[in-house]
Write a structure and sequence with these properties.
There is one protein chain. The protein has about 130 residues and is an alpha+beta fold. It contains two helices and five strands. It is about 25% helix and about 20% strand. The longest helix has 21 residues.
Length: about 130
Amino acid sequence: MPAHRTRPLDDVWGYLAEVTAALGVGLESCTVDHDSPVSAYVALDERLPRHPGRDVALLWDEVHGWAAAIETHSGEDLIVLRYLGGETATPPPARVARFVTALRENDDRAGQLTPPDFAGGSASYRVEQTA
């Protein structure tokens, strides 16, 4: 891996550690794809009421930020349910946790159906601060 990618990937793992702590799952539930755009998968230990027979995961990438998805039974691509959206691909971990809680509660106001595009933003992985 090129040296110029080492620090940003360390930052991604640090951010994921904060998010998984806020979600109450371990960092071992994550995988990171180092290709461009950098992306991550976070397995959640729960199911959503509207999809009781499907495993749930959070997906993250530099372009679209966070998305909630369900697994298929056939091993095909995940089915994205909603995107967190917002102003940055790296919102505070507490905001990601609130997004997951809202999905658990069938709150249709959580997130958005269309993918945001953060591609024009900075590649920084600093977490947005809450007011």
